[in-house]
UniProtKB/TrEMBL annotation, chain A:
Keywords: ATP-binding, Nucleotide-binding. Transmembrane segments: none annotated. The lineage of its organism: Bacteria, Bacillati, Actinomycetota, Actinomycetes, Micromonosporales. Residues 251-266 have a biased composition (Low complexity). This is Sugar ABC transporter ATP-binding protein. InterPro entries: AAA+_ATPase (IPR003593), ABC_carbohydrate_import_ATPase (IPR050107), ABC_transporter-like_ATP-bd (IPR003439), P-loop_NTPase (IPR027417). PANTHER family: CARBOHYDRATE TRANSPORT ATP-BINDING PROTEIN MG119-RELATED (PTHR43790), SUGAR ABC TRANSPORTER ATP-BINDING PROTEIN (PTHR43790:SF8). CDD domains: ABC_Carb_Monos_I. GO terms for molecular function: ATP binding; ATP hydrolysis activity. It comes from Verrucosispora sioxanthis.
UniProtKB/TrEMBL annotation, chain B:
This is Xylose transport system permease protein XylH. It is a multi-pass membrane protein. The keyword Membrane applies. It is found in: Cell membrane. Residues 1-20 are annotated as: Disordered. GO terms for cellular component: plasma membrane. Pfam families: BPD_transp_2 (PF02653). Part of the binding-protein-dependent transport system for D-xylose. Probably responsible for the translocation of the substrate across the membrane. Keywords: Cell inner membrane, Cell membrane, Membrane, Sugar transport, Transmembrane, Transmembrane helix, Transport.
């Protein structure tokens, strides 16, 4: 679809003490597209997301957002750019209702009084814009919602803020079949509304169902970033487990293990 | 504001004005689902009052009704502060003796040092703020469990009261303003005026909200329900003021005794103020959020430590106000002010009223309802001539009952919710 990525990462390195978790990672997310980020446990998916959302500082590498080089030092920087993350463990408060959760920490006020009508209206508009019909009342507590509905609220919360890039961390991991379909449909709709969506998932069916591109991490290295139509199911599994598949992925000897030495021709990226 | 375009259906898709019937059914469904709120406290209050009224008709006299308020005031005020701490799932065991320390400061400043009453009140409240800040910092910044911090406070403040009392002497409080707080009444006309203002204010808030929401096409409670709420408040306040304005003196020729006790409007104002803070400000919203899911609150950019410190400050400050009322009622402060059963009655009041010990659920009104239950038990059993031994046992059992109701309704909520 669009040629220029919304977010582009180049040469990202990240170590925790002696353990190098990300090595010279390049990654791009395009507006209007769902980019699936796949990889086995410990491949560095979560770390990469936390670098993008400003929770971890990177050791080296460049961020380019909307064509401009940017620095992301804190979650607030990321939010200011329009990057929102929907975490696996949802981060919703059970004892608050849907509207209260969607505006948590960013409540609309008139004077010191909470402006409930405005918030409720905006929440209703956002949910309607995402064609969410499964929620009966905006004032019901989140504890009374099903897993799929909760995920919907978490996603709606992320798109409420003029966000441009939404990162979803395993949004379907705990859901049943019907609810998974519901959430995937919502993910697709986000992209169709023009947002750049990054979907982290272990489920190949989900990945092939909604994604436009697939980015595969293997032991901290980005081994491939290809269009979903150009790759098969089996190839992706090979990329995840072995780091290469046919002409794709690592060339030469695969890295021996996660905390090996830095690869040859180390990165020359700027300071993040 | 949102990036997503509004479709034709708009908000109407998720909103519809419910009828009275569906409103009642919705409430009943919430109750069955484990969200029982203050229902046990209200039912308990009705049952207790009926039983005591049958066993001892004097329980229903105007004089005894007024006594209930002054007897329960200090515990209720402390419980109102405790609600904030309980909302975070924390506990403040030192609130009772914190109120004792503040009362001792009050007595020392006004009687020993001879300053005017307002200086003494300011000093007592300031003492409460300082105590709360210290407790909150220890809990939030150092990370000691609140149970341990406040248990240490419980012991230490007991000692501080003794030290302030110069090894056990008691200090009398004779300042006329301070004594009036718990011992004098409003003129009957002022009582009626305040009740009218309260009802009018409540009606204005309710109707404005109704109009505001209806104008934007949002779901509103049915008008009948809104009017019933306003009418209910008017009836309750009217009855209470009427009874309290009856002559309570045994011999009118010697002295007249009628009117709303001055502590009642004090409690009412604090109830309104704290309810406003909890439900209409983002600070209150953040308290609920931290109590419900600390991690979610942190990720939403809420300063969790600041919220945790602030609830301890509120709790100890309310304890200070409770201490002032207790000192006023006893006309003196002794080393046991705020001691013995005060703290447990206050925790009991909050929990009986429907505030959860697990955090995230509760209202300031709970403290007032629960405080009423505790005061009724204390007062009614006293009238029936039971010893304090029996009173303690019964109050303990009621507290246990309330805590089990809390735990069971939580289980029920977990079962009916789809987690």
């Amino acid at each position: 679809m669009s040629a220029t990525p919304l977010l582009e990462l180049r040469g990202i390195d990240k170590s925790f003490g002696p353990v190098q978790v990300l090595r010279d990672v390049a990654f791009a997310a395009y507006p209007g597209e769902v980019t699936a980020l796949v990889g086995d446990n410990g491949a560095g998916k979560s770390t990469l997301v936390k670098c993008i959302s400003g929770i971890y500082p990177t050791d080296a590498g460049q961020f380019v957002f909307d064509g401009r080089p940017v620095n992301i030092h804190s979650p607030r920087d990321a939010a200011a750019l329009g990057i929102e993350v929907v975490y696996q463990d949802l981060a919703l408060c059970d004892n608050l209702d849907i509207v209260q959760n969607m505006f948590l920490g960013r409540e609309k006020r008139s004077g010191i009084i909470l402006d409930e009508p405005t918030m409720e209206q905006m929440a209703a508009e956002t949910l309607a814009g995402l064609s969410v019909r499964t929620v009966k009342s905006l004032r019901q507590q989140v504890s009374s919602l099903s897993g799929g509905q909760r995920q919907t609220v978490a996603i709606a919360k992320a798109v409420l803020w003029n966000s441009k890039l939404v990162i979803l961390d395993e949004p379907t991991a705990a859901l049943g079949v019907a609810q998974t379909a519901q959430v995937l449909e919502l993910v697709r709709r986000l992209a169709d509304n023009g947002l750049a969506v990054v979907l982290i998932s272990h489920n190949m069916n989900d990945v092939f169902a909604v994604s436009d591109r697939i980015a595969a991490l293997y032991l901290g290295q980005m081994v491939a970033q290809v269009k979903t139509t150009d790759i098969t199911h089996a190839q992706v599994v090979e990329l995840i487990t072995a780091g290469r598949s046919g002409g794709l992925g690592l060339t030469g000897e695969p890295a021996t293990n996660g905390n090996g030495a830095a690869p040859a021709g180390s990165t020359t990226g700027g300071v993040s | 504001m949102s990036t997503t375009a509004v479709k034709q259906e708009g908000p109407a898709a998720v909103t519809s004005t419910p009828s009275v019937g569906s409103h009642v059914r919705g409430y009943w469904r919430r109750v069955r689902g484990g969200d029982i709120g203050a229902l046990p406290a209200v039912l308990g209050l009705l049952v207790l009052c009926t039983v005591f009224a049958i066993m001892r008709p004097s329980f229903l006299s105007a004089g005894n009704f007024a006594n209930l308020f002054t007897q329960g005031a200090a515990v209720t005020l402390i419980a109102m502060g405790l609600v904030f701490v309980l909302l975070l799932g924390e506990i403040d065991l030192s609130a009772g003796f914190a109120s004792g320390v503040c009362a001792a400061v009050l007595a020392n400043v006004v009687t020993v040092l001879g300053y005017p009453w307002y200086v003494a009140v300011a000093a007592a409240v300031l003492t409460g703020v300082v105590i709360g800040t210290i407790l909150g910092l220890l809990v939030a910044k150092i990370g000691i469990p609140s149970f341990v911090v406040t248990l240490a406070g419980f012991l230490a403040f007991q000692g501080v009261v003794l030290l302030l009392m110069e090894e056990g002497r008691n200090i009398s409080v004779r300042d006329s303003v301070l004594v009036a707080i718990a011992n004098r009444n409003l003129p009957p006309l002022l009582g009626w005026t305040l009740a009218a203002v309260a009802v009018a204010g409540y009606a204005a808030v309710q109707l404005l909200r109704y109009r505001n929401r209806a104008a934007r096409g949002l779901v509103t409670d049915p008008m009948v329900v809104v009017l019933a709420r306003i009418g209910g408040l008017a009836v309750i306040l009217g009855l209470a003021v009427y009874v309290l304005n009856l002559e309570r003196s045994r011999n009118v020729l010697i002295s007249s005794l009628k009117g709303v006790p001055i502590v009642v409007p004090i409690i009412a104002v604090l109830l309104v103020v704290w309810t406003f803070v909890l439900h209409r400000t983002s600070y209150g919203r953040h308290i609920y959020a931290v109590g419900g899911n600390k991690e979610a609150a942190r990720r939403a950019g809420i300063n969790v430590d600041r919220i945790r410190i602030s609830v301890f400050v509120i709790c100890s400050t309310m304890a200070a106000i409770g201490g002032i009322v207790a000192a006023s009622r006893a006309n003196s402060v002794d080393p046991n002010t705020g001691g013995s059963n005060v703290l447990l009655y206050a925790v009991g009041a909050a929990v009986i009223g429907g505030t959860s010990l697990f955090g995230g659920k509760g209202r300031v009104l709970d403290a007032v309802l629960g405080g009423a239950v505790v005061a009724v038990i204390d007062n009614g059993m006293g009238l029936m001539g039971y010893s304090s031994g029996v009173k303690y046992v019964v109050t303990g059992v009621v507290l246990l009952l309330a805590a089990s109701v809390d735990a069971l309704s939580r289980r029920r909520a977990a079962a009916s919710g789809s987690r």
